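User: I'm curious whether this sequence folds into something compact or stays loose and floppy. Could you predict its structure so I can see for myself?
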Amino acid sequence: MKEITDAEFERIRGFIKQKLGINLSSEKKSLIHSRLGATIQEKGFDNFSQYFDYLMQNKSKNAMIQFVDKVTTNHTYFMRETDHFDYFRDKVLPYIYENHSRNSDLRLWCAGCSSGEESYTLQMIIQDFFKDKSVRWDTQILATDISSAVLEKAARGVYTSESLENLPKRWINDYFQAFDSEHSVIRKEIKKLVIYRKYNLMEEKFPFKKLFQTIFCRNVMIYFDSATRDKLVNKFYDATVTGGFLFIGHSESLNHMTTKYKYIKPAVYRKV
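Assistant: Here's the prediction. I'll summarize afterward.
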């Protein structure tokens, strides 16, 4: 198989930007070569142009699913950016409980949930918070990603014992059970409270009928250019209830000139 040419890279990069919103720099040429190279060889193509033509002409969804899984980055771990979880526990949940008790409906969306560590962490915090409350709440949360591979892993809920080391010991005892000698699995009573769905944030309009009290979209928009990021944030804003929160990654920031969200603290914003 030949090395990817500049023209081939630009063609693939343009498609990724249009389809996924991800803005790859020219330095990512070797990354695309390494991530797609095995697939191209496996399918018997001689170069990247042949593969891309096949991708555009293929009528099944499988080719596109495989492409998205290959080119997206899904790096996460339990308790990433811990201060967000502390703020969610100490400030956000009490606010939701006090101001949305009429419907007793928790509305939380993990956008770009990757392999489930963030969404399960949030659900464990939620269960701790509501366990002593007299009124029964609907605490199901929505978790979405564009990658089928990571969604399958998240839905399985199986993690290495080493990856759980940052979690409180009580959580490991209460919310996980042994899977094998080296892995643990999230318990069914927690797993059923996280709804995993495939969703592309680049869709023109969000399909959700109800507004969210909290949206987590952390370390996703770092791959977007400013115009794409601003457009997505505006859609998040329209999907948030008044008083609701948006959490982004600490390596990200919102343009204070274009966003309607109010800055609360690093990587935490609010609709007021």
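Summary: The two ends are 55 Å apart (CA to CA). The domain at 82-157+189-270 is CATH 3.40.50.150 (Rossmann fold).
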